C-alpha cells in the first residue's frame, strides 16, 4: 500500500508549527451509536460524532428512551444494517430488530433469541456481526446466529480470558472483546477471537500492567484509521472518560477527546467494517499535546532560519503512527518564506 503523508511547515509570528495530515480526501471523523446511562439509569439511545482530528466527541442525535429495544445489544453488519436485541423482561425480550438511523424506527426481524431462551437456554446479549453471522455472548459461552437459517449454535467457552460481558466489537472482519476487572494485570487488554478455537484467541492490545485500569474499556471497535480501535476509558475508579484510539499493531495510543458525561457500556459503528485497503493512515506528532498545537500537530517556540545550525525538533517524544506499513513517500510543503539569507 502506498502512503502519501503530507507534512506542512508553517511559520506563525515567531512560532513554527509542524503538521501531519492524513491522506487527502479521507474521512476525518466517524459515528458511533450507543445507549447512554447516568448513575445506572438509561437516558437515551444516541448517535455520536467522533472527530479525531479536532479532538471533539459529541452527541449529534437523541433518539429518546429506546431501552426496551437496545439494552441487550447493538451491532452493525458489514452490509450496513444496525441490529439491536430487545431487553429481557420486557415485551421486546429476545427480539432482534433492525434500526434505521435516518427514520429513528425499529423493524422486527425475528424472535429466535427468545425461542432459544424458552428452550431452557441462557438469555443472550452483547451482539456483533461478521459475514452474515451475529455473535452473542452471555457468561460463559459465545454463541453464533445465522441470519440466513436463523439457527443459534454455541461456539465455545471464554472463561479463561475473563471476557467483559457487556459488549463485543469488530476490527478488520474479526471479532474482538475486552477483559473484565477480575482479570490479572498480566492478562488485561483487548483480544481477538479465534472462532474456530476460542482457546487460541489472541491479545492484540495489552494494557500496561502498572496502570491497566486507566486503559480499561467495556466497549471497543474498529475505526477508519489503520490497525486501530476506539475505546472509551470509563473504569469506575480510574477511568478518565476519554475517547481514545489504540493501535493494535504497535500498541501505541492517542487520546482523542473528552466523552459526554454518560456511561457507555455498548457502542457500535459502521466504521468497524472499514476496508483494510481503504483505511486512513495518520501520524500524530504530539500524542499527549505537550506543545499545545492540538490535532496531529507539533508546535515549536523557536524560529527556524537558514542560519539555524542544529535544526529544530519536528515532533514530541511521544508520537502515534496509525499504520504498520512502510512509509514509502513523504512530501514536505513550506507554506511561508524562510527567514534569513541563503547560505
In words, what does this structure look like?
With about 350 residues, the chain is mostly beta strands. The protein has 2 domains: about 70 residues, no CATH class; about 250 residues, Tachylectin-2, Chain A, CATH 2.115.10. About 5% of the residues lie in helices and about 40% in strands. It contains 3 helices and 25 strands. A 4-stranded mixed β-sheet has the order 23-2-1-25, with no helix packed on it. A 4-stranded antiparallel β-sheet has the order 6-7-8-9, with no helix packed on it. A hairpin with a 2-residue loop joins strand 1 and strand 2. The two termini are about 40 Å apart. The N terminus is likely disordered.
What's the short version?
By secondary structure, this protein is mainly beta.
Helix and strand arrangement:
Blueprint: E1 4-12, E2 15-21, E3 29-38, E4 41-51, E5 56-62, H1 67-70, E6 73-76, E7 82-85, E8 96-100, E9 105-110, H2 112-118, E10 125-130, E11 133-138, E12 141-146, E13 152-157, E14 169-171, E15 174-178, E16 189-192, E17 202-206, H3 212-215, E18 220-222, E19 228-233, E20 242-247, E21 253-258, E22 283-284, E23 298-300, E24 320-321, E25 329-334
Parallel strand pairs: 1-25
Antiparallel strand pairs: 1-2, 2-23, 3-4, 4-5, 6-7, 7-8, 8-9, 10-11, 11-12, 12-13, 14-15, 15-16, 16-17, 18-19, 19-20, 20-21, 22-24
List keywords for this structure.
343 residues; 2 domains; 40% strand; mainly beta; four-stranded mixed beta sheet; four-stranded antiparallel beta sheet; Tachylectin-2, Chain A
